[in-house]
Design brief:
33% helix
Length: 104
């Protein structure tokens, strides 16, 4: 099942303690934070394009603009129910070569 695969993926991330950024700070991400081990990952910050969310906090972790990613070398976790493909394309267009994990 999908959720099983997702948990295996996330458990690897938790155990490796790799630095990650979660792109997406909406309801889907909130659900994942409550229902999976996503919150145990070494999340440096969240990224969201919504200006109203930027500068606010989710799980006591700041939500920032995607421009911050130029300073980040870790794993980018894409957590968006609807726009994961668009976000992946955007990351590629921005020229980032981070490892990308899509949660769906």
């Amino acid at each position: 099942s999908k959720s099983m695969d997702m948990n295996i993926l996330l458990n690897h991330l938790v155990n490796s303690n790799k630095e990650c950024v979660v792109w997406g700070a909406g309801n889907y991400t909130k659900r994942l934070l409550s229902q999976t081990v996503l919150g145990k990952c070494n999340i440096k910050y969240f990224v969201d394009k919504d200006i109203n969310k930027q500068g606010t906090f989710l799980n006591n972790i700041e939500i920032k603009d995607s421009s911050e990613l130029s300073q980040f070398a870790g794993v980018i976790i894409i957590a968006s129910a609807l726009f994961s493909n668009n976000i992946r394309e955007e990351i590629t267009m921005l020229g980032f070569e981070n490892e990308i994990i899509i949660l769906r």
